Every structure is written in structure tokens, then in C-alpha cells.
Amino acid sequence: MEISGMQTITSRQNPVVVWTVKLEDKKERERSRSFRFDGVKLFAEAIRSGVELTHILFRQSSLESVLEKTEKIVGRTLSSFDVEFGKNCRICEISDSVFDKISTEKAPEGVICVGKYIDKFHKIATINKVGSNEVQYKEEKIILAESMRDPSNLGAVIRCAVAMGIDRLILSSDCADIYNSKTVRASMGTLFSLKISIAEDMCTVIQELRESGRRVFAATLTKDAQRLGEFELFSHDCIVIGNEGHGLSDKIIDACDKRVFIPIADGAESLNAATAASIFMWELRKSSL
Q1: Residue 122: what pLDDT?
Q2: How distant is the alpha carbon of residue 91 from its chain centre?
Q3: Which long-range contacts (CB under 8 A, 24 or more apart) does 71-74 make?
Q4: Domain map of the chain by residue range?
Q5: Which of 63, 76, 137, 239 has the CA that lies 20 to 30 A from 231?
Q6: In whole angstroms, what is the distance from residue 175 CA to residue 149 CA?
Q7: Strand 90-94 with 34-38, pairing
Q8: Which has the closest alpha carbon to 168: 261, 239, 80, 244?
Q9: What pLDDT digit, counting tens, does each position of 27-59 carry?
């Protein structure tokens, strides 16, 4: 495919290449309100979801194969990049040696994208600072997470939430950055379609959910925790998942009106946070089937 205006880059010191690498740093992402992601699947999902792309970097020898694979996933021909991405998207062809050095993939597929933050996205994803009197998600299925620091875990939770029909994920402000490349990659593009709220005060959010008539369960092993599977969960119930190593904080447990635990085999220490979240989400989904 002929791409008009495509720039060829062969130097690791090129400003576009240098800036793309800098986007691995959260401060630069926040400053520019931009994030990067690598791979054909994410490129295709970004196109399908309407993510505002500002840069598309192709590996020189992989250009044709990337476009072919992308078109199969998207389900249509990318007939004109001028039409697809507008004049504000810079298309670059990167020499193989430079591309391989800056890719975050172990086996680079041949495309790196830079997109604008999606917090003002048109019906695609809503990333809000949630404070007092702002939680009014009456009909949504909601999962909450406190201090989930591992970006790969967070990405896996996002991916599972979409698969299990969860409408909104509410994260404490100290969770891993949703725009971290590991988070985006683990989400497999579902980040672009899930409603996500960032809560500065999780206790206030939990209180508001309870006041709206919902039960909010803390996933914890406290003595008063109920065994999952021995009571009925309803689709409007909410569950709070904790930190990978330390679980939920006491203040969050106290803010919830219920506690729940997943029974596991004797001798097993615990479940991965993303695995536990997926089990809870499946139980919530079963309640609405």
C-alpha cells in the first residue's frame, strides 16, 4: 500500500523515536497526555474503537504484513491513511534495527502506535476523578480495586471485566497506571471499551454505592467473611479486590458492609489478584444469566 507523506527513519536519535521511548515514563505520558502501545491486535482495536492516534510507526520489513493482518481483524480495507487518521497523525517507517530496539514486545510484530488519552472519549471509555456525590451508576455492574500495583494484573482484570459483562471498573488512585504499556498490552485492547473511574477517595465511593441500595463486598479472609458459593450474589452487588501482596486496607474493609472469600484447597497460600477478580466477576455474571 502506498502511504502518502510517510517518513522513513533510520536513526535511534530521531525526535519521534526518542519521544516514543519517553512515553514509557508516566511523567511524560501525563505531560503530553499521550500513551504508546505495540502490536497488531492493539493497533486494530484502536482503529475499531476510534482512539485518536497521533503517530503510527511501522517496522520497515513488516509494513505489508502488518496492514494485511490489521485489515483482517478490523474487517475492512484501510484504503487511505489520510482518511482513516486525518492530517494530525504522523506515519513513519522505521528501520528494522531501530524498531526492534524501541519495541516493548519480545517478538516485535511491526507496529507501534501513540494515541491521545481516552478520558474524554466519545462513548468509548470514561476515566473520571470520582468524588463525593458523583457515583450514580444505578444500572451498571461494578467491580472495584484498591492499590492494584501490577500493571499486567490490572490489564488482565480489565480484559476479564469486558468478557464478563462488567460495565465499570473503579480504581483507587494508587493503582497501576492504565496507560502503562504493560497494562494496555495485557488488556488486549479492551481498555478502549471499558468504563473506568479513578477514585481519589474510595471510602466515599463505597459509601455512596451502599447508600444507593447496593451491597458492597470486601474480598478478604477476615473471620466474618462469607464463603463464596454459599450465599446468593445479585448482579447489582459490588466487590472490592485488594493489593496483590497485602489485600485490602482496614479502612476499605470497614467501609464495606459485607465480606467474602474464595475457598481454595488446603496448602494453597492465595490466588493471584487478577484470578480472584475473574472468579468474582463470573459469579456476578451468573446471577444475571
Answers
A1: 47
A2: 25
A3: 73/40, 73/41, 73/44, 73/45, 73/48, 74/44, 74/47, 74/48
A4: 7-116, 127-286
A5: 137
A6: 5
A7: unpaired
A8: 239
A9: 999 999 999 999 999 999 999 888 999 999 999
Q: Is the whole model's pTM more than 0.85, yes or no?
A: yes
Q: State residue 44 phi and psi, 5-degree precision.
A: -65, -45
Q: CATH top-level class for 7-116?
A: alpha beta
CA distance 90 to 87: 8
For residues 87 and 92, give the distance between their C-alpha atoms in angstroms, rounded to a whole number: 14
Dump the DSSP string for 8-25. EE--TT-HHHHHHHHTTS
Q: What is the mean pLDDT of residues 99-128?
A: 83
Per-residue 3-state assignment (H helix, E strand, C coil) for 131-173: CCCCCCCCCCCEEEECCCCCHHHHHHHHHHHHHCCCCEEEEEC
CATH number at 127-286 = 3.40.1280.10
Residue 241 DSSP SS3: strand
What are the percentages of helix, strand and coil residues in the chain, rounded to 5?
A: 35, 20, 45
Say if residues 287 and 233 touch (Cβ distance below 8 Å): yes
Give the Cα separation of 238 and 244 in Å (integer): 19
pLDDT of residue 129 exceeding 70: no
Of 144-158, 214-228, 265-279, which has the strongest mean pLDDT?
Answer: 144-158
Closest to 158 measured CA to CA, from 77, 273, 66: 273
